[in-house]
Amino acid sequence: MEHFMGEGWRLRPAGGATGEAYVAEQGKQKIFVKRNSSPFLAVLSAEGIVPKLLWTKRLENGDVITAQQWISGRELTVEEMNQDRTAGLLAKIHRSNELLAMFKRMGNTPLYPEEIVQKLERQNDSDTDIKRHLDHIRTLMPSVQEETYVVCHADVHHNNWIEDDQGSLFLIDWDGAQVADPALDLAPLLYGYVPKEHWADWLDRYGAEPSNSLRHRIWWYRLIQCLENILWFRSVGQEAEELEWQYQLEKAWASAPD
Hints:
Number of strands: 10
Strand content: 15-25%
Distance between the termini: 54 Å
């Protein structure tokens, strides 16, 4: 990466799961550089969802390097997730025809409930409790079919919501984006950050009617989120986190909508 950027640029890791993101500095110039970023970064930039895309270059080995405007910002706090602007930005993303059209042009197909459950079944290490949960979740699938599929970020954790010095809000880290039921994003956001008594208000700001169907789908995707995290933290040997998600799963089952 240093060779590609040229003389005078200093690079330092910018964190992230892939280890392919860097902060590049040359004098007073500072940019965010990433290898093989989301291919629809240009659309996200044009719609103001992520910081401005400066350039994109393809290397001889096929890798794509992108550079974005560096913003001196901060992550949203847990308390700030229950705000009009998070609801508004997520609504903008879910209703973007441009994002959806580009994602489909790339050959991506919707992520259906059956595919999600099958993936978890493959990941399960013969744990009979996990199998029991998955079997029950399977019986619920006929009631969580949704005709409207949108581009979902699929990792709406508060660390990915960034506010710049001017108060503009961005949602970053789009590597795991999917075309899916919008409940895929709504479930972790509502269960993780919004008190249940405020759900109706938050969904109103998002622009959705809190129907029984939507509440049921949000609940179903919360169950899925819990199981995904249990299996993930188990795979990396983080027992405390695994136990926390087991507790969250029990809470989710107990909160089944009427």
